Structures are given as C-alpha cells and as structure tokens.
C-alpha cells in the first residue's frame, strides 16, 4: 500500500481529490497539509478537516502551512469559481472533525511523516507549491524519502487565471520554479491541458450523487463551481483537476507521461506563472532537469476510475 500525503487548498476539486484518497484502498493517506490558494488558509484548513470528517478520517494528521507566497503578495483568490467559503457556500453542511489541526506547522509535519515512514512517500501537491518549496529548501535530507511528487499545475497551451498561467503555479511562481526546475526529486506534472479534457458531465455527477450519502454530499458542494465550468465548457459539467492528479498517484501510469525539461516564468509581465515545457525532439541530451508531464490518457478510463472509487 502506497503511503500518501496531500498538500491542498480546498476548493471543490480539492475536496473531490481528498475524498478520492480517503476512498482508495490502494493507498494509505498518512497526512494532509494546507496552503493558501482558492481561499485563505483558515478556510482551506477548515475545509480539509471537514472533508476528512465526512469520510471518518479523524486519524489523519492535518497541519496548516503557508498563508502567502514566498516573495510577492497573492493577487486574488478564486472565490468566483469555488464560492466565498471554497465549497460553493456549503462548507458548514459538512461534519466537524473531532480532531483539529496538529500542533505543528505543515513543513514540520511533512518532515516528521517522511522521516518516520517505512517506505518512500508519494506527495500530491494540488495547490500553490509554497509548502513543498519550503520543505525541500529547509530539509534537503528528506528528498530520499519522497517516492515522487504528483503535482497538479501548469498549462502548456494557455492558462485559466491569465492567458498564460494556471492558478496553482501563478499563485507562487517562485515556489513552483524551485520544485519543478531546481530540486532533484522525481516529479509527475499533471497540467490543466489534460485535466480539462477529463471533465465530468451532468450524468456522471448524477451517478455519484445516487451512489450514497457521501457521493451526494460531494455533489452538493459543487453548485458555484459547476456553474462556472458549465459556462466555460459550454455544457453541463465541471473539471476535477486535482482529483485527476490523485488518481495518478493511486494508480501510477493511469496518465501517459513524457519526460521533458520545464521552466517557470517568474517575471512580472503577462507570462508570469507560465510553465514552459521543452518538447523539442532535437534538444541535447541532459539539457535541463526533466519531469514527467502528463500529456494524454484514456479519458473514459480516468472518469470511470474516479467514479468507481468515489461511489464505492
């Protein structure tokens, strides 16, 4: 069973990702850390605790992390996508967890979990990469305890928060560059180019809601998010970006990846936060550190995997 840690900023799709990790028998969810992002840190932490409570996971330690980026202020949250509370105004309908946050910060919890784990741990960062950048900068000795990072972030063909950038990377480009470009840790990058193609539709959501109380509760959190994406997609449905990354962590190889160097634009112009992937077939061997970028998948298989686990 793969030990798993999720670093997250819930967020509707983050809630689906956490639920997937709780529901998957293939992995052992050993910790959750929170970061600013879709909403502020207090709300992302509260939302993570409540989603875990929905799945009866009072045992999973939760620690709050960075409340702002490494260098520059965060320009804005994503309340217009996820709702003011991050969960379409429905966060208070979730149960409260008996166990609150751990008495340590996110980086301290990550170090403790990694050092005590009997096997290398998969970490799935599905928000801004601030916590992970701080971890790797301050505690390089834990690199060997990380099996891989499965990062949801980036956009190779146009962003969602600007024309160039995807929200998670744009929220802290300096942290993203540290993790994706500078650190010698195995990375699988799951960009929004692919996650958008894995969008689920109304019947998929209806099937999840009909599967049982937990599925119905998850779907009840989606109204604001679903309305936003229905306009964006031009049909009833939504994109579960972060859950696709967790699915790859649960079932390695579910997504088809290609190794390539990437760069992150940390400038102050319109390209800030852009992930630039070097897809040239003629680049010199060893030219830049490579990460595995998920470019394709059997889309129906991904949707089926998500539904079967969340409904089960």
UniProtKB/TrEMBL annotation:
EC id: 3.2.-.-
Domain Inosine/uridine-preferring nucleoside hydrolase: 4-302
Top-level taxonomic group: Bacteria
Keywords, in A-Z order: Glycosidase, Hydrolase
CC terms in the record's Gene Ontology section: cytosol
Gene3D superfamilies for the chain: Ribonucleoside hydrolase-like
A GO molecular-function annotation: purine nucleosidase activity
Segments traversing the membrane: none
Pfam families reported in the protein's UniProt record: IU_nuc_hydro (PF01156)
InterPro entries named among the record's database cross-references: Inosine/uridine_hydrolase_dom, IUNH, Ribo_hydro-like
BP terms from Gene Ontology: purine nucleoside catabolic process
SUPFAM superfamilies: Nucleoside hydrolase
The protein's name: Pyrimidine-specific ribonucleoside hydrolase
Annotated organism of origin: Actinophytocola algeriensis
